[in-house]
């Protein structure tokens, strides 16, 4: 099998390079070649196959291929052998089929390869993404680790600081203690010193005293003119034991008086307080007694018995009226009863609080609280009213919308709407002014038209004159007389006498030309008719129709938008322009200005 | 408000007689007694030297003039101008002289507080009291004049002696539990004696008339203590001002603290009116506008507080409500202030030419008229509260206030002299 490899042309060297194993079956080589790349494949394969099979080894090649193909599960390339001796014939069909199959397989493989490549690409990008993610996470981890380390460091530092501060605090405390000790010792020392100094001072004082006082200082004296009487007028008394006792007595008397005074004051205060207490108690009883039934019914927490006790107590107290006595029993009773009542009041208040909270929680079904209920009812009523009002408004809105939608073509509804939509009217007025302007413009246009028509008329006149002259000539020349021609001449002559404007209108619309009665020939009549503006279409008079048309053509400019929205109403609107203006919805403005001329024309056409 | 003409004065010695009829003033060594209403000179006495102290006797019959330098006291009688009395303390010297409440005895304290000599004007008898203590307030008489309490110092211990003033008999003698007693003061009812310790220690002791210790109060330790003590006129409260910048109010039943008033640097309560003296305004400007409710009976307490070591502000507390009521902030340090004896009205002077009056209705300042600058250094109320003597260094004048028709009952106005002049 190795011999064919030697024959490979230089072109296939790159293949052999690609295929590291030289000793390979051609099929494997081929398959490898297929896998290698699709672009050099066609060329290489071609050359390869040309090398693979030569004139000499067709048979072997075929048999080899057959073998290979059969091993891959393809049908045999040879025809069914009838005998063993006979040489097997190559089945072309089978070969072709095989080739086709192989090609299909090849294509499939290519597709699969492409898919695999794309998938590979995808996976590669995924991989990249994941890798970048991984890198990022790694970085994050690193930073957080660093942060953690930093925090740990800070924590350690803080702890260190704390320890230091603790130490400092301890030191300070010690210092304070020391200082206090110092202060105390200083104080004692100071006191000691002071005492020593004072003793010295006292000694000195004593000495001075002796020196000064014992010297019989004659200077120390009082000179007085005469002794004055005592302030109280009495004589001074000798100092005896009696006076001492009297002084004592007096002192105690004063003290006693003071204490009595104070006691009196305290008693008075007590009486006041008792009065207040009694009043409070009474009020408490009166406050609690009417409500005690209900709490009793509701919750048996022993308040009832206490209440009765209290009442008994109160009765006792009132009976005995021991207010002036302040003996202990009464005091005890009083304080006890007050305490009890206070407890009751407290529980009652708490209960009330609970009730209130319950009411808040449960809703509004507490029958006790009438005012609350009233309030609730009132609010409910009001809410209902609001609801009704809302509904009314809604229905009104609906009705209005319905009217707007349905009743556009009705005279009465339009009138109604006239009544309703005042602001719409305002807007319409505005539009009306716009329309007027438009009308003016149109008028201008018409004037220019008429001017052009006049010119045309003049030309026509000239032409007619020419023609007349020509006809004359012909008439003179010809012997026979054409009737129609003469009629034409008649007609033209009749019109030539009328106003230019009317002439124009007639001639601008040649299809309107009808054989006409002679009665219309008077120019005075036509000029008059042009002035009569909104003429009813029922009049069969030709000229009137004309003028009407001309009028309509101007009015129709105003009616563009309604006609656009409702083309089926054109005719009517044209016949009754005033109405159509009034009923025109105001929403469509501004679109008529651009197409005014063309529309006019078309409408005119339609009208006619 | 009217002002009298200006009279000469020396040594800020100008006093109304206790009965309110006379006004005694000193000019060098002369003593001038005037009628309060007419200001006519009634008597003129000449002393031996420049007068350093004068005092009316309780019955307004005598005036004592002390000349400490010479150790002399001269007594003059208003009824008998020719009557005279001269007490010479000789070489023992003299540092203080005062009347006993009966107006017939004079208590002279010798130099070095060696003793107190009690001279009688009725008899020749002379009493000596040894060992008086040299302190802030060592002698106090009860309101009714019956008893005198005297602080003493013997053998490095403090004692208090209670004397009966009528015969100078020692009634009680007891030692006090103080390190270094600084002052004593009777309650107005004359039954309780407040004793306070030196500024080194916060200690108030309350003794009954019979010498029993009723209570002791100590707010804190290891710090400077009491600065001043004042009784309420009803004897119900004792105000104690201390170096921690607080005034503590003790009650008379338990002798415990009811409340303490601070002197906050900033006042946030809008109910408290702060009157600030404006720089150039003749009137005081209202610092904050609040309207304190009308009170039936005012019982304010005032104290000045040192600001930058100078007492510029006066604090008035409402004792009924036990809260700060008004703060008066003056531009210059307060020299003197005194309650009107009849109604809650406070007169203040700051050494300027203005006198300030505060009442619950508001605050006014009045310029003292006259040529030259009249610097009001001190002031004193007349008994009925309708005139005020304003004293400057060399002059004095009377200020007459408009009196209302109905005289107000003696109020329990109460000024704590918490002045500091550190």
From TrEMBL, chain B:
Q: Which GO terms describe its cellular component?
A: microtubule organizing center; MWP complex
Q: Which domain of life is it from?
A: Eukaryota
What PANTHER family would the database entry show? Answer: WD REPEAT PROTEIN 8-RELATED (PTHR16220), WD REPEAT-CONTAINING PROTEIN WRAP73 (PTHR16220:SF0)
UniProt protein name: WD repeat containing, antisense to TP73
According to its UniProt entry, this protein's organism is Equus asinus
